[in-house]
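Appendix B. Raw example, untouched.
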Amino acid sequence: MYKIIFSLFLFNNLIFANINIVDTYRKDGINEVEKLINIKLKDKEYWKNYLKNRSTKNGYYESLKYIVICDKNIKNIKVYDTKKDDIVYSSKVIIGKNLGNKKKEGDLKTPIGVYKLIEKLDKLDPFYGPFALKSDYPNDFDRSLNKTGHGIWIHGVPNNEKRDPYTKGCIALENSNLKTLDSSIDIKKSILVISEKDNLKTTKSDIATILSSIYTWKEAWKNSDFKTYSSFYSKEFKRKNKSTLDKFLAHKKRLFEKKEKKIIRFKNINIIPYPNDLNKNMFQIIMDEYYKTKTYKYIGKKELFVEIVNNKMEILTE
């Protein structure tokens, strides 16, 4: 408890002029202090002020350290270090034979979107160079759109064999460049962004909207406030198993009616601009979730694919 109070003193942005946190704690206890903080976390203006001197040109990152950005338009890949706020590596690449976003197996297109680098593969056919970094294409949003295909890697090229100036959908680099790329990142703290534009560009207002919405959505979830909770879901919402919005919300409503006491915590929030060919202002949110009720406990990753519509966050896939 005392650790929490001490942290509040360090977190200057939470000590606002019209509220004396110490007096609130002294008179009403830690629960009332938590309520005051939750009010602030749901306030977009608080987050706009918090972000004032923070770069958000490539998104917002609390735990991801490296953003590997592939620009299909200029056939380039670069590594953005979120801690240094700088590009630390860049290289030319080879991409899929056909232009546009990948839709199905065998269309020879490199996908557009945001993907985890989930594994380093070695002992491959020499055609792929010394190793490959495997992505998680198709991700949950891709699956909700019925996209097919697999095996989208960042890999090398054969040493003693001529190859075509394109791939079947992967991203390929010269072997020496692949090794430099690999040494420049930690795949456990990296994300791959594949775009057809030179940069991602987002606004502090969008990031503030998402951060304040995350906490408003979380509090509605925690308090079984179905009306507020359901208002964050897009009419286009669909899960990777093709479950529709009506089916999803009907299930949630039944759970909310039980009025179970919940503990829900989020940390290590990362907000990545999501390139797409749907003309949407999209983002992928990846964060750590702690969820506990009397009957169920979950500790793991929470992922949301969201769109900003009229300054409001709408969840497309969860």
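End of appendix B.
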